[in-house]
Amino acid sequence: MQINEIFLDRYHITELIGSGGFGNVYRATDLKTSQEYAIKIDVKKRNQTLLESKILLDLQGGDGIPKLYTAGKYADLSYMITELLGPNINTLKEERGKKLELNTAVTVGNQVLDRLEYIHSRGYIHRDVKPSQFLLSMNKKDIYVCDFGLSCKYFYGNSHIPFRGHCNRIGSPSFASLNLHLGFQCSRRDDLESLSYMLVYMVKGSLPWNQNKFENSEKWQSIYALKAKISPTTLCNGCPPEFEKFLNYSRGLKFEEKPDYRYLKSLLSNAATRDYMTGYLEWLPFSEVSGKRKRKNQKNKSFGDNFEEDSSLDSIPSSVRKARRRSVKTKTIAPDDDVMIKVKPRRSMSITKLERIKDNDRKEKNRNSSGDSSPSLIVLHRVKRTRRKGSMGAQSDSPQMNFSESPTLNPSESIERDNFIMRNLMPGLNDINVSPFCEIPTRDDNTPRAGLPQILNRGILRELRKREKIEGVGSETVKNITKKLRDEVKETSLKNESSESCILF
Ligand SMILES: Nc1ncnc2c1ncn2[C@@H]1O[C@H](COP(=O)(O)OP(=O)(O)OP(=O)(O)O)[C@@H](O)[C@H]1O
Predict the structure, then answer these.
(1) ipTM of the complex
(2) Is 37 helix (H, G, I), strand (E, B) or coil?
(3) Shortest CA distance to 59 belongs to which of 116, 15, 107?
(4) CB of 85 closer than 6 A to ligand 1?
(5) What angle do CA 78, 190, 248 make, to 5 degrees?
(6) Model confidence pLDDT, tens digit, residues 403-441
(7) How far apart are CA 261 and CA 328, in angstroms?
(8) Which of 42, 58, 114, 128 is catalytic?
(9) 128 is catalytic
């Protein structure tokens, strides 16, 4: 196939976008519709692409599975036409200084885990999990899985395939599981072990066995020797401890055992840094990451997923983005004898400003971690704006923030949202985390009963009491502040029922 050739009298081949062991993948434009596609052509003339297209057909409809448009034979070549996708993770990693940020690796890992769970749920294993098999969608937000050339069924009807030794070694030795090296029949566990190598590879930039160049004939053997010798702790050195747990868990799975995907996801969530946001990918602008969160929640809700599973938590709901557009009025409280009560007027923040804050967030955190620990108290009153006469539409008419309105909120998200607000609206107070102190009253359907102010107040008051107990220093002062705050909030809510108060400590 040549560039500029017209394939099947219809597709204009414009670029060779990838080539692998079995075929070449071309970018092509449909002359009828001008739509772009990816065409994979089996260069080895072994009908491999046709076999692959059958598996892809079986998997159609899953998230992150490329759409299959058509497949067939042309002369002695087999081909399939699929949705055109963006660059693969390996290419991106190379382009971005040979390493990916930990949080990017966590998002990629999470999505790859979802893809594998889906593929496994359809009775298949991928058998060639490696970074170059995972492609970004054209908008660079979602991870798609490609290349089912080595995939096979592990479940027929109701039974798992039987264990077998002396199997051919297939796939990429760098990411192959130890069992695959030993010629054992692959099952779900092997896909997951490969994913653990992929996680380490993304964060560290390479795997220990990538350092040497091996002759093709001895590649499998030499890599196996290194892989089997190196301890998981050494391999995962420089990565969060959860990566090591991930690897140990995958290696410890029995041949037929169903992996606990939820546990693995929780490991990934814990591996991320504190300011991680679901869907975070280092190449996405901040505002687009927030968008991702909303869609994900909606999807999870409609599929009835347990929110814990999505409790890679930390995302920013749309309500927060709305909050940026709100003006915030503040009120001064008379300073206490011992404690300085600081009140800052805040104007609405532009998205650009919040982006900048987020970028600086990590730096500031480091700077502030050893910094001033004296408490500063900030009371914000978010006051409902009066309706503009003659303005149309409920949205524009009532610009006040009402967090409890959000239909997709669950308690853990709301904690994360509150933390996000604290960190971003008050960038100087980076190490505040209300989560452990929050009491979130929930309705039967798990949505929070209280809005942001109540949640924060409760958390902060409890924190004050805790300090009172633990520190025992100035407990009188702490009590006074607590009382003062309570009175203040009560008073304000009585005065103006529609106002929302947010106390940050
Ligand atoms: N739908 C697609 N859109 C854009 N690029 C694609 C698409 N499918 C595959 N590619 C690119 O082509 C490369 C090779 O594709 P693929 O892995 O399917 O071929 P292969 O011959 O099976 O490769 P390998 O032997 O490396 O596994 C991929 O890494 C990817 O970068």
Answers:
(1) 0.95
(2) strand
(3) 116
(4) yes
(5) 155
(6) 333 333 344 554 555 555 544 443 333 343 443 333 344
(7) 43
(8) 128
(9) yes
